[in-house]
């Protein structure tokens, strides 16, 4: 029983980690700038520390932030449009 509980807990934590990797935080500043990355430190009502995709760290004051959102991260080879005729033909092999 303990092994089953341990395995289920492990699977749940792994699936949560994998699902979290598909999103990136987007910080909108009052001056019109947009910063995309991972928020690695947030001091409530004081500041944000953001690590961008190129590895640089950006620190901004919360008074300069308009809003913070999450966007879906697109990876190479990921194709969102499935309405392509060629893709539709390949999925219906043997059916005419």
TrEMBL record:
Compositional bias of kind Basic and acidic residues: 77-87
Signal peptide: 1-20
Region feature (Disordered): 77-96
Keyword field: Signal
Name of the protein in its database record: Uncharacterized protein
Organism (species): Bacteroides ovatus
């Amino acid at each position: 029983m303990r092994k089953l509980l341990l395995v289920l807990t492990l699977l749940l934590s792994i699936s949560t980690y994998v699902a979290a990797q598909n999103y990136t935080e987007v910080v909108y500043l009052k001056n019109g700038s947009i910063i995309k990355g991972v928020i690695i430190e947030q001091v409530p009502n004081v500041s944000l520390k953001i690590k961008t995709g190129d590895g640089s760290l950006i620190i901004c004051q919360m008074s300069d932030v308009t809003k913070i959102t999450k966007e879906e991260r697109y990876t190479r080879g990921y194709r969102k449009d499935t309405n392509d005729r060629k893709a539709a033909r390949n999925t219906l092999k043997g059916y005419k």
